[in-house]
Amino acid sequence: MITERTKLNRELAQMLKGGVIMDVTTPEQARIAEEAGACAVMALERIPADIRAAGGVSRMSDPKMIRGIQEAVSIPVMAKCRIGHIAEAQILQAIEIDYIDESEVLSPADNIYHIDKTKFDVPFVCGAKNLGEALRRIAEGATMIRTKGEPGTGDVVQAVSHMRLMQSEIRRLVSMSEDELFEAAKQLQAPYELVRYVHENGKLPVVNFAAGGVATPADAALMMQLGAEGVFVGSGIFKSGNPKKRAAAIVMAVTNYQDPKMLAKLSEDLGEAMVGINEHEIELLMAERGK
Amino acid sequence: MKIAVLALQGAFAEHEQMLHQLGVETFEVRQFSDWQQPKDGLIIPGGESTTQSKILHELGLFEVIRKDIQNGLPVFGTCAGLILLSPMHLGTMDIEVRRNAYGRQLGSFHTVAPVSGIGEDIPMTFIRAPYIEQVLSADCQILAQVDGHIVAAQQGRQLVSAFHPELDNDTRFHQHFLQMIRLQSA
After folding, report:
1. Which one is catalytic: A7, A17, A64, A80?
2. What is the CATH number of the domain that holds B127?
3. Is A189 exposed, middle or buried (0-12, 13-18, 19+ CB in 10 A)?
4. Which positions in chain A touch B13 (Cβ < 8 Å)?
5. Coil vs helix vs strand at A262
6. Which residue range forms the structural domain that includes residue B43?
7. Are B105 and A34 a contacting pair at CB < 8 A?
């Protein structure tokens, strides 16, 4: 049974489908993102690539900085809080953020518990590497799910494996007989009702985006072809040579992800892509935070 | 009957599902060549109006769609679709619109209200919704108001709602649109 608020929050995510959500750190970047066709922006002090480079503890952004971005654009504004950090989430709710990302990109505040998101009126998006994680986050009240591709790397490989794994686990549930679902719920460590929903509908009860490592229009098209309903782009845009052009090209690529000819044109002359580091070169796998 | 559904960004799949439930064929418009197919009407879905407008321009669809609507192609716009038909973008409908009129996501709500000619108890889901500040011509008929604000209107073959009939399990609003097409082509 879901509340009216939960329904409304799931529905906002439905409105974001087929769109690109871009990380921005200033009102000016937010305006560039909006003009390029972003369907929402994620306001944060440092993009993941810089968080990774800086090291140390990474926390929720300054509410004043977030408010500056809220004032700069008319599209929805999201912001990140640390996993399990109830107070940061309360603060973001107090400034009427449109979506909270309880994110592994920041340093976790709690190594065991995620936020009980059913206690909030503002919606939450959470990362998931597989179906079990996704369903646990939904049970906690998340109204949107995204992959947990390694942020700030410009390497799409993790997002791809998360999306592939989730889709194959969904297909497996669909093919099961009803009496097998109880055991499946046990193995997935997820509530039976949600497992049953996936069995009956062949999809999550909430919108599922790709996130982490998307750096090119082709990356975005790849994620859409693998079943993502939209794409988050973090460091990929404002760490590249021509953010304006790259942002617009990724937006167009998400709409026309099935048209290689158009993708070819969109991929031309974008300037330098973010350099990127691959997952073997990094010491910290953020996707391992929060299961 | 075949309805074109603008599928650039947003909740277009929900509209398609509803039309399929009503036994109507649809096709998605994602690029210029899609628009060449024969159609009896167009749906502009909810989503972000700035995003959809930007892509319309980029694909060269903005002017052709405007021309076809002006030439009488029936169109139904919900939420962002309403904003796109207003003078802020396509300008085919004489309405003055206030965007994000209910504020941010915390202001999103669900209610039930009458819509003239459609029903007394129409479920209405408002998601970061706009409303119509005023209609700017006598041709434009107000269909519904919530708390004194205009949330649905019709002008000739153009129908708009600030809420999302495609999200609730009630097909009456879509049936009204189909009826509008049938009447005017008869």
Report:
1. A80
2. 3.40.50.880
3. exposed
4. 17
5. helix
6. 2-185
7. no
d(CA B14, CA B163): 13
Helices (H), B45-101: 49-58, 62-70, 80-85
The CA-atom distances, in angstroms, between A238 and each of A47, A62, A86, A211, A245 are 8, 20, 30, 16, 11
Contact A252 B80 (CB under 8 A): no
Contact B47 A259 (CB under 8 A): no
Q: List, as one string, the DSSP characters of A125-175.
A: EEEESSHHHHHHHHHTT-SEEEE---TTS---HHHHHHHHHHHHHHHHHHH
Mutation to test the A interface, candidates B108, B111, B125, most A Cβ within 10 Å: B108
CB contact (8 A) between residue A251 and residue B167: no
Tell me the CA distances in angstroms from A157 to A48, A161, A162, A237, B46, one per residue in order. Answer: 16, 6, 9, 18, 32
Residue of A nearest to B167 (CA): A11
Give the integer Cα–Cα distance in Å for A117 and A81: 12
Q: How far is A192 from chain B (nearest CA, A)?
A: 25
3-class DSSP state for residue B25? strand
Closest CA to B11 of B160, B151, B165, B144: B165
DSSP state of A210: B
Element housing A23 (H / E): strand A20-24
Per the annotation, the verdict on A80 as an active-site residue is yes
Residues 6+ apart with CB under 8 A from A53: A152
Q: How far apart are CA B67 and CA B62, in angstroms?
A: 9
Number of domains chain B contains: 1
Q: Tell me what ipTM this predicted complex has.
A: 0.96
Encode chain A (291 residues) as per-residue pLDDT tens digits: 789 999 999 999 999 999 999 999 999 999 999 999 999 999 998 888 888 888 888 999 999 999 999 999 999 999 999 999 999 999 999 999 999 999 999 999 999 999 999 999 999 999 999 999 999 999 999 999 999 988 888 899 999 999 999 999 999 999 999 999 999 999 999 999 999 999 999 999 999 999 999 999 999 999 999 999 999 998 888 888 899 999 999 999 999 999 999 999 999 999 887 766 666 666 677 878 888
The helix/strand/coil state of A64 is helix
